[in-house]
Each structure stands twice: as C-alpha cells, then as structure tokens.
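Design job #97: recover the sequence.
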C-alpha cells in the first residue's frame, strides 16, 4: 500500500474524516468513503408504468439479467452496467437501457430517480436502427401521467 498525497488528505479533512493532515493508505480512505455511504443508503423503489414489467419478463433470460442488474445498479445510486443513453426525445431526465441478442434489440426506458422512486416507463423490442414512433409516444404518455400524478400529490 502507498500513502496518499496531501491533496486527498485535504479532501478527507474537509469531509470530516480526518481532523488534520496524516498519512493514509488508499484502502483506509476507500473504506471510510464508500462503505459507510453504501450501508446507510436504501435502494430506490421501482414503479412500473403500464405493462412494462410484463414485457421485460417476456425478454430472453440473458437480456432480463443484464437489464435487471443495470436497474439494480441504478437503484443503488451506481451507473448501469449495460449500454445506456439519455432519451431527450421523450423528456428531460429520461434514459434508455440497451441490450440485444442475435435476433433483435431490447430497450428499457426509465425516468431518473425522483425522491425515492425510479419510474420504468416502457420496455420494448426493436428491429431497426431507429426507435419506432409508437414506442416513443407510449413513453411520453406514461411520463406525462407520472408527472401529473406527482404534481397532484403536492
């Protein structure tokens, strides 16, 4: 193990982990920052819009596993492990998880975490490069419903 430089120790002092400069190892600092945060944080809830959960369940096992694991990563505040991109054509804060097999491509569209909840808007298969207009309209309509429901709660 090696000692961290002054700059990282300064960050640890500002974060309240250290009272003053002292040599620390990477392992000690990693444990202080990451382990404490993860154990205190609860995973976000997932709300499934429409038939999105049933559609995801119908995907092949490997695709379900990949998209499901990536969704779990997002629940825990981490980056997804599969390909992903923002879906600004659907709305602000909307993202797409992507996976595929030899037959077709599979997509899961979700709204980033609001409060303690991640909203899965739509799941679908696609066989062309461009996302079908109907799938985008379904995701937009579900996003509109969710936003209206959130406004009504306030």
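Job complete. Output follows.
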């Amino acid at each position: 193990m090696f000692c961290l430089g002054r700059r990282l120790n300064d960050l640890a002092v500002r974060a309240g982990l250290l009272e003053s400069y002292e040599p620390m190892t990477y392992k000690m600092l990693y444990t202080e920052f990451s382990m404490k945060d993860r154990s205190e944080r609860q995973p976000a809830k997932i709300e499934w819009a429409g038939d999105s959960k049933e559609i995801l369940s119908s995907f092949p096992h490997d695709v379900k596993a990949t998209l499901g694991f990536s969704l779990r990563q997002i629940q825990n505040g981490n980056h997804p492990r599969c390909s992903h991109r923002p879906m600004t054509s659907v709305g602000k804060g909307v993202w797409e998880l992507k996976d595929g097999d030899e037959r077709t491509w599979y997509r899961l569209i979700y709204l980033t975490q609001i409060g303690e909840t991640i909203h899965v808007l739509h799941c679908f298969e696609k066989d062309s490069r461009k996302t079908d207009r109907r799938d985008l309209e379904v995701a937009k309509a579900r996003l509109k419903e969710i936003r209206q429901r959130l406004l009504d709660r306030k």
